[in-house]
Amino acid sequence: MTITLHWLTAILVVTLFSLAHIWSFFPHDGPTQITLQTLHVSLGVVLAAGLITRLVWRPFLGRRLPPASQGLAELAAKGMHYVLYGLLIAMVIAGFGKRWVRGHGVEFFGTSIPSPIVLDPSWRSAFNWVHHWGAWAIIVFAGFHAAAALFHHYAVHDGVLRRMLPGQEGPTTVDCVEKLIVPAPRLSSLSQS
């Protein structure tokens, strides 16, 4: 389930970001723009539910994998995960806040989720700012995250990307540590054998 939640989150983030940029090509407050915005909000609720599930699942029931790196690389990988989780939490709060601060419910496929508290209307610009710039930050950091996975796959050859693909057996602790300690053979030595 850990891998499923990871990829569900990634797909939702890309879809939500895309929807937010696609609807600007349609007439303001026209039926297509409103439909895309309503879908965006509903999928944002799905993201919130998935994020809550991940936050509960990961520490208690989640898949325990060995660190793919050691030292600074391991610290950077953990830091990246914390940054992404923090940004996702901020986005969900800001997304809900954007609706609630205007007195609207958060629409979830036709069902309205009302605000549990009264929000000060002066917070509207803060929610808008966090939601807008948080989205861009998530895309940038997710891009770094994906680039690091591709680097591990194509340059380090340690199986980090492979262990996050559905149905694939990931590397063991020994595999990860051996790739860090034992240098890969040179191409020239392989062609001589």
Radius of gyration: 21 Å
Taking the sheet with the most strands, its summary is: 2 strands, antiparallel
What is the helix content? 55-70%
Q: Largest beta sheet: what is the strand line-up?
A: 1-2
Q: Unreliable runs, pLDDT <50, ≥5 residues?
A: 169-190
Strands, total number: 2
Strand proportion, as a percent range, falls in: under 5%
> Can you write the helix and strand succession as a string?
HHHEEHHH
Q: Total helix count?
A: 6
Could you characterize the architecture of this molecule?
The chain has helices at 2-22, 31-60, 72-100, 124-156, 173-181, 187-192, and strands at residues 106-108, 111-113. By secondary structure, the chain is mainly α. Strand 1 (106-108) and strand 2 form a beta hairpin. It is elongated. The model is unreliable at 169-190 (pLDDT under 50).
